[in-house]
Write a structure and sequence with these properties.
The chain is an alpha+beta fold. It has helices at 3-15, 19-23, 38-43, 82-88, 92-110; strands at 28-33, 55-58, 76-81. 42% of the residues lie in helices and 13% in strands. It has a three-stranded mixed beta sheet with strand order 1-3-2.
Length: 119
């Protein structure tokens, strides 16, 4: 699947996120990159030689934000990694589900949940 078709699939997967969750999100951009960089893997404690990453939250979790300074910054970002997702999914339906689940997982970080409490 090419980049444009994948980005279209990401948009469709985002539409499948529950409305109440979407309503609670503010100033978060979802972007697509081909693969995680070594720095991305290391930043979450993964081994670049053996591990992979489907998505990554980059930003300041809600519980850690200061009331007067936030909102002046760039949006938080959730990166969805195209190639690792394509490598683990065997159908478009599976890809839609995996992208949605990956974004929901990363949104958990946005809300300040620790890794062991995330879906």
């Amino acid at each position: 699947m090419g980049v444009r078709e994948f980005e279209k699939t990401v948009r469709q997967a985002l539409e499948r996120i529950p409305d109440d969750l979407q309503a609670a999100i503010e100033n978060v951009a979802v972007t697509v990159e081909d693969r995680p960089r070594v720095e991305d893997l290391l930043s979450v404690g993964l081994n670049p030689k053996t591990d992979t990453l489907l998505g990554l939250y980059q930003g300041v979790p809600l519980p850690e934000r200061g009331p007067s300074t936030y909102g002046l910054d760039l949006p938080d970002r959730i990166v969805v990694y195209r190639r690792p997702l394509l490598e683990i999914c065997s159908s478009r339906r599976e890809l839609l589900d995996e992208i949605r689940d990956t974004v929901i997982h990363e949104l958990g970080h946005y809300f300040g949940l620790p890794e062991d409490e995330l879906p």
